[in-house]
């Protein structure tokens, strides 16, 4: 028996890696995703097949998945598939379900109120079992199996500052959506002689992970992409994490024990494909796991409120319940 774990890179893959350990094993595991720094780092040592990127809303890319899905079904003798999406799920799950493979689709934790476009399509494929991470919108087509955030609790203690204020800023791995509003707002606040340094009386050191956001006009040492292991290590020793409100970045911060300041992207401003990020940021703030602020209105007081704030991880998170 073989379980296929299937997800696109970014937050979808972060979620699947986190949830996989809470899903009862069923034989050998094989992973299918796209190849980049994040996936190579997260899946090191696992059985992985890298496939071409499936672009958002691109029917041709979805159709191109079917030959690989057929080969994997035949060569790997797949018996179960678990996917957190997004578009790549459309190329594999319906085909494999038609071949009798036990198919499970877990909607992203970013979808707080309703399913994504991928979820809305897959909910009409009867052989695919579908799960929401929010009990509030369960129904005839969706059941609740748990949440990727169930493993985390707010930490009432605050980490004392050392000689340097260490900050991590990350906007995720999306290659098509820059987030200049956040980087432009933070650059002066986090400058060596800026407001945060003045308020704390300590020098500020920043790791800037900026993705596709242009930064040539700013006096910062930006890195487009950081190895996921290096990013997690930097967050573990950080006094402050500021991130876009993407699931992957939020999960990385939580896993590192940090309570991040989250700034939500806007679809109307070309920063995202839709407006799910404000809902996610509000949900994490409700749980006490993040601070949600508008990127254009971030202040040094917001940053000071979050400095040293952390989260705790439960030793035994509940199993994610897949239907049989």
Helix and strand layout, with pairings?
Blueprint: E1 2-7, H1 11-20, E2 28-33, H2 37-42, E3 48-50, H3 59-63, H4 66-76, E4 78-85, H5 87-98, E5 102-106, H6 117-122, E6 128-132, E7 143-144, E8 152-158, E9 165-170, H7 180-189, H8 195-200, E10 204-209, E11 222-223, H9 228-236, E12 240-244, H10 247-255, E13 261-263, H11 277-286, E14 291-292, H12 300-306, E15 309-313
Parallel strand pairs: 1-2, 1-4, 2-3, 4-5, 5-6, 6-7, 9-10, 9-12, 10-11, 12-13, 13-14
Antiparallel strand pairs: 8-15
Helix pairs in contact: 1-10, 4-5
Domain Glycosyl transferase family 28 C-terminal: 167-291
InterPro entries: Glyco_trans_28_C (IPR007235)
Organism: Geodermatophilus sabuli
List descriptors.
324 residues; alpha/beta; Rossmann fold; 2 domains; 7-stranded parallel β-sheet; 6-stranded parallel β-sheet; globular; Glycosyltransferase family 28; transferase; Glyco_trans_28_C; hexosyltransferase activity
């Amino acid at each position: 028996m073989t379980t296929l774990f299937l997800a696109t890179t970014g937050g979808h893959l972060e979620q699947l890696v986190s949830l996989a350990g809470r899903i009862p094993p069923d034989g050998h595991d094989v992973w299918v995703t796209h190849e980049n720094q994040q996936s190579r780092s997260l899946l090191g040592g696992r059985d992985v097949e890298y496939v071409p990127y499936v672009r958002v809303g691109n029917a041709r890319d979805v159709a191109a998945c079917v030959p690989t899905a057929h080969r994997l079904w035949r060569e790997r003798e797949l018996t179960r598939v678990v996917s957190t999406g997004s578009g790549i799920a459309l190329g594999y799950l319906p085909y494999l379900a038609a071949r009798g493979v036990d198919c499970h689709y877990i909607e992203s934790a970013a979808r707080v109120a309703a399913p994504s476009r991928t979820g809305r399509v897959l909910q009409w494929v009867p052989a695919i079992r579908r799960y929401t991470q929010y009990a509030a919108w369960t129904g005839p087509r969706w059941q609740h199996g748990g949440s990727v955030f169930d493993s985390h609790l707010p930490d009432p203690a605050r980490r004392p500052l050392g000689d340097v204020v260490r900050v991590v800023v990350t906007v995720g791995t999306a290659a098509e959506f820059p987030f200049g509003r956040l980087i432009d707002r933070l650059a002066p606040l986090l400058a060596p002689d800026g407001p945060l340094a003045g308020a704390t009386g300590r020098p500020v050191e920043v790791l800037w992970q900026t993705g596709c956001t242009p930064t040539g006009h700013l006096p910062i040492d930006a890195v487009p992409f950081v190895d996921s292991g290096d990013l997690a290590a930097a967050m573990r020793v950080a006094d402050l994490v500021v991130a876009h409100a993407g699931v992957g970045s939020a999960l990385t911060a939580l896993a590192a024990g940090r309570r991040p300041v989250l700034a939500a992207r806007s679809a109307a401003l070309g920063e995202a494909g839709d407006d799910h990020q404000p809902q996610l940021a509000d949900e994490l703030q409700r749980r006490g796991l993040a601070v949600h602020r508008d990127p254009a209105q971030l202040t040094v007081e917001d940053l000071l409120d979050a400095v040293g704030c952390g989260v705790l991880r439960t030793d035994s998170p509940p199993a994610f319940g897949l239907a049989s």
